[in-house]
Amino acid sequence: MCKLQERRTELRYPEGRCGMLDVTDRAILAILFTDATMSNRTVADLVGVSQGTVSNRIKRMEQLGIIEGYSIRLNPEKIGWRMTVVVGIRIEKGRLLEIQGKIAEDPRVVSVYDVTGDYDSMVVALARDREDLNNFTKTVLSLDGIERSHTHMVLNTVKNTWIGLPEDSESYD
Fold this sequence. Notes:
By secondary structure, the protein is of the alpha+beta class.
């Protein structure tokens, strides 16, 4: 089962993993989603528990791997990334991990996914301008082992958010 198991409502995930979250944990996480720099004292006041409870809960969620880290969110356009592309890639048989690893090393690459369907991998990348996208295409997307790529330019971002908490454990029963 899960390490650090306590008397809490078990949340089941599709993959069979589990995390131990109760209403207080979920409230703490909801607040941290909006501002991860908020002090434990402020979080405690908002949740209605002690500062020690918040501190202990956060440490436990970090140990369980529920909280993997803390970061800032940047607006890509405001720091010079003016183009987003989604690329479907077909990779030579037996070279998937090798090629994905090389692609992932490029700083313009945001995400690399194994997928089903017509492609072996999908890549989300950013480019400063057309010249930078051209360079990306001629260097990264032309690696030996890539059989074919199909680049889609993002025209408008409708939604781009980090994962949130599932509604409740019954969602996966």
